């Protein structure tokens, strides 16, 4: 029977079999890498996504056989290093994802390779530190420490020290740290017993905010803008009582046990809020994706994980659902003009459509131009010394579109992607998060 070429069925995804001892077997992993790399070599549709695929294809083309059997196995690890689990090859390019019989899931194969490497004790100290967002945020949030860290990050001499100690590229954008975190700013100000607003479709009209590490320590105004917009729409907002990192940075490192520990802390608390009638919203796409996709694939039989998956929303997904049921206020006081809007990869993977664009275009005299290209940031990839220049090359098509647009504003749902674009523009203009733009439009 001939093999089907391509796939017209909707992609589906198998649970991550990370508890199986074979998952960590090096020989089994190498065999699967070879199988999938052979398929990728014969297809090459993903050549323009990230640097993982050019690394593989260039090595094959430069080999003596011009086939995978001529490539040094050490190149396999280089391919793995360049994959930052954006999932775009799986969602938009690969014709051989399940239910196709070839069963190609490139991102989860790369995740398996990272997990095997981590289990072998080969994770770099720099990578352990960069992915420890709770620890770094807590330490850097100490008032004196935050002032020193921010000052060091703004000087060339300081950046040379950071480069030497942590192998962080001196030209990479590093976020500021705030001693007045979002949680400190809002302590005692949230009504935890607030009555729900009007129900609209699946949304129940009151929201518990999962602040995220980045939203708490690095850009607390992100949460403040979200709360202002939601409360303007009669949606009470409280904070999740206590939270830890969603686990995405550790997932990208292959430290699945650390992901499981974060899950064990967060999920019971979030599930309890869902049981009390609260919807969950988080302002960073990667964190929402972690609860919507990655944890359910790691723990497919956990009822609380499924409960949280079904109750967590991207902010604009939530607002768009409210609008669909005529529960979103459109009393906008200010137009926004032309917006150049970068669609974050981890938002695209959620398959919810361009809800941010749709909501912003409700504002009179506002036009949103969407850019569906990766920014190359990935949280830590773009700051690492060995990957920063590649990340900026990946971002170049995005910055070119922003420059050509002549837009009044540019933004991304991912605040880190927004700063990556800022770094590429290098003209002093700063990104404005879509929540900030919506707040501006409301005049609140």
Explain what this protein looks like in three dimensions:
It is a single chain. The chain is an alpha/beta fold. Among the domains are: 21-119, no CATH class; 326-442, Rossmann fold (3-Layer(aba) Sandwich). 50% of the residues lie in helices and 6% in strands. It has helices at residues 26-43, 52-62, 74-82, 88-93, 106-119, 125-130, 133-140, 143-153, 156-166, 182-186, 213-218, 220-232, 248-253, 256-275, 285-298, 303-309, 315-324, 345-348, 355-360, 388-405, 415-425, 434-442; strands at 207-209, 237-239, 279-281, 312-313, 337-342, 366-371, 409-412. Strands 2-1-3-4 form a 4-stranded parallel beta sheet, sandwiched between helices. The protein has a 3-stranded parallel beta sheet with strand order 6-5-7. α1 (26-43) packs antiparallel against α5, α3 (74-82) crosses α5 (106-119) and α20 crosses α21 (415-425). The longest helix has 20 residues, at 256-275. The mean pLDDT is 92.
> Low-confidence runs (pLDDT<50, min 5 residues)?
none
The CATH topology name of the domain at 326-442 reads Rossmann fold
- State the order of secondary-structure elements, H for helix, E for strand: HHHHHHHHHHEHHEHHEHHEHEHHEHEHH
Q: Note the main sheet.
A: 4 strands, parallel
Distance between the termini: 64 Å
Read across the widest sheet, the strand sequence of neighbours is 2-1-3-4
| CATH class identity of the domain at 326-442 | Alpha Beta
Number of distinct beta strands: 7
Average of per-residue pLDDT values: 92
Radius of gyration equals 22 Å
Known CATH architecture of the domain at 326-442? 3-Layer(aba) Sandwich
């Amino acid at each position: 029977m001939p093999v089907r070429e391509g796939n017209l069925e909707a992609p589906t995804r198998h649970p991550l079999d990370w508890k199986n001892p074979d998952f960590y077997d090096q020989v089994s992993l190498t065999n699967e890498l070879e199988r999938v790399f052979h398929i990728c070599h014969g297809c090459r549709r993903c050549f323009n996504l990230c640097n993982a695929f050019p690394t593989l294809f260039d090595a094959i083309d430069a080999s003596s056989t011009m086939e995978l059997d001529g490539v040094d196995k050490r190149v396999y690890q280089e391919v793995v290093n360049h994959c930052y689990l954006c999932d775009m090859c799986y969602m938009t390019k690969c014709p051989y994802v399940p239910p196709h019989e070839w069963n190609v899931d490139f991102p989860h194969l790369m995740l398996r390779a990272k997990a095997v490497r981590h289990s072998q004790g080969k994770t770099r100290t720099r990578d352990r530190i960069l992915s420890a967002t709770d620890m770094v945020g807590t330490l850097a949030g100490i008032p004196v420490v935050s002032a020193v860290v921010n000052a060091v990050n703004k000087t060339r001499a300081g950046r040379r020290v950071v480069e030497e100690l942590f192998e962080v590229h001196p030209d990479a954008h590093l976020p500021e740290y705030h001693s007045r975190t979002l949680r400190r700013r809002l302590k005692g100000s949230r009504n935890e017993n607030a009555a729900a607003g009007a129900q609209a479709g699946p949304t129940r009209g009151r929201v518990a905010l999962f602040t995220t590490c980045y939203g708490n320590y690095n850009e607390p105004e992100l949460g403040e803008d979200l709360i202002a917009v939601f409360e303007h729409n009669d949606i009470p907002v409280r904070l999740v009582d206590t939270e830890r990192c969603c686990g995405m940075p550790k997932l990208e490192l292959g430290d699945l046990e650390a992901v499981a520990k974060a899950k064990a802390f967060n999920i019971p608390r979030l599930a309890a809020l869902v049981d009390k009638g609260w919807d969950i919203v988080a302002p960073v796409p990667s964190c929402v994706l972690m609860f919507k996709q990655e944890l359910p694939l790691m723990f497919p039989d956990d009822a609380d994980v499924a409960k949280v998956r079904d109750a967590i929303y991207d902010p604009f997904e939530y607002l768009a659902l409210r609008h669909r049921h005529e529960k979103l206020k459109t009393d906008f006081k200010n137009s926004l003009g032309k917006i150049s809007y970068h669609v974050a990869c981890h938002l695209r993977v959620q398959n919810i459509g361009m809800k941010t664009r749709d909501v912003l275009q409700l504002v009179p005299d506002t036009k949103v131009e969407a850019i569906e290209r990766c920014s190359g940031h990935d949280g830590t990839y773009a700051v690492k010394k060995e990957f920063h220049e590649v990340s900026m090359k990946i971002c170049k098509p995005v910055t070119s579109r922003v420059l050509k647009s002549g837009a009044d504003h540019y933004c991304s749902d991912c605040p880190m992607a927004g700063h990556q674009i800022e770094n590429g523009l290098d003209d002093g203009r700063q990104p404005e998060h879509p929540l900030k733009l919506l707040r501006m439009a409301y005049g609140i």
